[in-house]
Amino acid sequence: MLINVLFCDPDCFFALKVWNAQNAGASAVLVADDIDEPLITMDTPEEDAASAKYIENITIPSALISKSFGEKLKKAISDGEMVNVNLDWRESVPHPDDRVEYELWTNSNDECGVKCDMLMDFVKNFKGAAQILEKGGYTLFTPHYITWYCPQAFTISKQCKSQCINHGRYCAPDPEQDFSKGYEGKDVVIENLRQLCVFKVANETKRPWVWWDYVTDFQIRCPMKDKKYNKDCAEGVISSLGLDLRKIEKCMGDPNADSDNILLKEEQDAQIGKGSRGDVTILPTLVVNNRQYRARKETPRFLSNYISGQT
């Protein structure tokens, strides 16, 4: 098997490196970082006509490795040594409690183009398997949502007020990238918070898998394109699932308060990398037993095989 070891060029996207290596005959690709740092999650380029032609056609496995490990491999190959590299997930399993614990960093925004479509396809396609595994006690799932904050000096600006809640503490980009029309970033933050609270309340009733029902139903019934991405539509979905609306409202708190929101503060803290796991900075990001994973979002097949293989 031919495995290419590439060194990062900042002017060439990770995905393009892999695509070029695949076309050159590689069966797998290792991309070495160009600086000494904790491993990060590699993103795909912004979707455009050029990148769309190759991103969905990458079929070989790929991974980012540290600079020091890359240099060792490069030296060994240059010295003519026999190098055997195994791409293996077993180092991250089994978990001490004999179940796979995984997190999905997601977003309720449905107007961010191809990435939003891919993410929602993943959620819809994997929902059934996720719920079966959770009900059987084979997995422990936790959804997460990235938020940003507005610098203190700009919290009273029009942009911060339209994108943030709790006086600039928790923000999301404008869905349409246009401050003059459509939905605002704070609308996304509020819905993300509502989805966190749906999970919290469902978990308290020992039905955490209801989160999957809510996010898929909300996506179908309350899309931005139909101007239904709002509180009324969300509460209709919540009621149809038999969740306690009052508990969810209490959980969400006051988005206009000049104070921390407990759940969103926990989310910001969770974004920070710990140990060998880097910061979560891009969406979607999947973390399996504290190991970050990114790939083409045909992830239901990957995750189903991976989790079921460990249970």
UniProtKB/TrEMBL annotation:
This is Complement Clr-like EGF domain-containing protein. It is a single-pass type I membrane protein. GO terms for cellular component: endomembrane system. Residues 100-301 form the Vacuolar sorting receptor thioredoxin-like domain. The keyword Cell wall biogenesis/degradation does not apply. Pfam families: PA (PF02225), VSR_TRX (PF25011). Residues 7-73 form the PA domain. It is found in: Endomembrane system. It comes from the Eukaryota. Keywords: Calcium, EGF-like domain, Glycoprotein, Membrane, Repeat, Signal, Transmembrane, Transmembrane helix. It comes from Artemisia annua (Sweet wormwood).
